[in-house]
Write a structure and sequence with these properties.
homodimer; about 110 residues; mainly alpha; Arc Repressor Mutant, subunit A; elongated; DNA-binding
Chain lengths: ~110, ~110
DNA sequence: CATATTGTTTGCATTATTACGAACAATATG
DNA sequence: CATATTGTTCGTAATAATGCAAACAATATG
């Protein structure tokens, strides 16, 4: 699929969310858990709660996760619609290579 | 495919390279061009040459592109091996969602 | 109702990113 | 050889990102 300028900006925005190892860990954690409270996420990371909260906020901002208050706790999870949107965008972006460059690069795999 | 901690760090590193709209544009440009000199790339962007050079340097650092000096000019192109590696990594990462979260999120698409 | 538990928000400090102009290097050209 | 062309590197300024501790807020519990 072709990718336009707006979509390329979205690629950059999603990539920005994924550009920090902590946030990648959080997403990986959420993608493989049934229950995902803030405390569980925090326990998994060597960071203070404020920092964890901040990373979660950023992931929420791009929509990759969503939080749900449950009593005094907060339950987080992947927003599957956005997750799939990001997945598709990256796939489209990387599919866009037409291999036309005439540099003397190593070709093929 | 399963993805381990080292691969997740690579996801973050590649994502970091893609986290800037200018760099995404550069990659898109290179992925769709036969000849790709520095001057062509610069012409495509509203930035001074120093800044463009800096972004190219960063993309080279993660290996997504490579430069080749040709007389007084420099020819840049996608490093297809790294390109495919990144593509695979993102695909593996996004494939890792097991959908187990019990939040009251909208399910499905 | 006082206190504990769970997270978020605020206020910093530190470091990284982005951009620019100027200086520099290397090749080409008159 | 002097000068133009093409990029890179350096120095610097402005802004963004990261992390922590402390202050807050909201719910739960004795």
């Amino acid at each position: 699929m072709e990718i336009d300028i707006e979509e390329r900006k979205k690629v950059a925005a999603f990539a920005n969310a994924l550009s920090n190892p902590v946030r990648v860990e959080i997403l990986y954690f959420l993608a493989n858990r049934k229950d995902c409270y803030f405390g569980d996420i925090k326990k998994d990371l060597p960071l203070c709660k404020a920092t964890v909260s901040q990373h979660l906020k950023e992931l929420k901002k791009v929509g990759l996760i969503q939080g749900e208050i449950e009593g005094p706790k907060t339950k987080y999870c992947i927003n599957i619609a956005k997750w799939n949107e990001a997945r598709q965008l990256f796939d489209d972006f990387f599919s866009g290579y037409t291999g036309g460059c005439s540099c003397n690069c190593r070709k093929g795999k």
